[in-house]
Amino acid sequence: MLRLGMPVIGVTDLPRAVAFWTQALDLVTADEWSSETWRTLHHADGSGRALGLLLSASPAEPRPRLHLDLFTDSAEEQRAEVQRLVGLGARAVDWDLYPPEPDFVVLADPDGNIFCVVDLSHAPSGS
């Protein structure tokens, strides 16, 4: 039976990406499939795979069709997490596609991969 595995992010600097995503999401590196071009990140609580990081020569897409949404439960938590992620190396993205009252903030990881921090108390955007 086919099942969804895990999201994989293409990165140009694997050690930097491991450092960012493990700190951002409280993940741990796993020996599973580890190589010069791949790292598997697991949930720190031992519940299994969370994210794959793949060394990539291609640049990050400025408007990716697929991206990660990271959830928070309030606007206050969203602001704090955005600030924390920027402190870890993420950057704010000048996003011209925000709806009038967005529930999300668009950031880019240190490799330029776009992701969103979503305030679930205000979701969904555009409704």
Largest sheet: 4 strands, mixed
Query: What sequence of helices (H) and strands (E) makes up the elements?
Result: EHEEEEHEEE
**Distance, first to last CA:** 36 Å
Number of helices: 2
The percent of residues in helical segments reads: 10-25%
Kindly name the structural category: alpha/beta
C-alpha geometry: globular
- Please state roughly what percent of the residues sit in beta strands, choosing from under 5%, 5-15%, 15-25%, 25-35%, 35-45% or over 45%: 25-35%
Radius of gyration: 15 Å
Question: How would you describe this protein?
Answer:
- With 127 residues, the chain is an alpha/beta fold.
- The chain has two helices and eight strands.
- Strands 1-4-3-2 form a four-stranded mixed β-sheet, with helices on one face. It has a four-stranded mixed β-sheet with strand order 5-8-7-6, covered by helices on one side.
- A hairpin with a 5-residue loop joins strand 3 and strand 4 (49-55).
- The longest helix is centred in the middle third of the chain and has 14 residues, at 75-88.
- It is globular, with a radius of gyration of 15 Å.
- The termini are far apart.
- The model has no long low-confidence stretch (mean pLDDT 95).
